[in-house]
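Input record (one chain):
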Amino acid sequence: MKSTTTLLVVCDDGGARFMENIGVGKGLNDLREVNIEEVEGAAEGYADRPGRGRTIGSGASYAMERTTSEEQQRRQAFVRQLVKEVEKEISKGSYDRLAIVAAPKFLGVLRGGLTAELKQKLVFDLDKDLMKIPTQKMAQHLAEKIAF
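The corresponding structure, as predicted from the sequence alone:
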């Protein structure tokens, strides 16, 4: 009988860790890490000041408000790249399920960026920041949700 394989992604808005489990009782293995600085467009900053516009007729000038903050733009760019990376891993065909653990604010944005295929594979998501937990102790933190 084939073992159930799981891709675990532990992330926050600064980076992500990819781990795998190749069957119950076999623990977790580190695959790789992705850092926000590696993501194209995520580290680009804002201009010093918001843009300016002019009204028609009088020509009076006014400041324009930013629709998103720099932090939101960085987070959204990182989510787009992270979803691509997860899709790449899942498309290899070697994983039966997907589990995501992310810092609460980041998980909300990440959920919105998941594709239909990833949502089908997703067995659980947890809103906890476990980025600093060593891989050997990760299974203990997730024992109530999933067996590794």
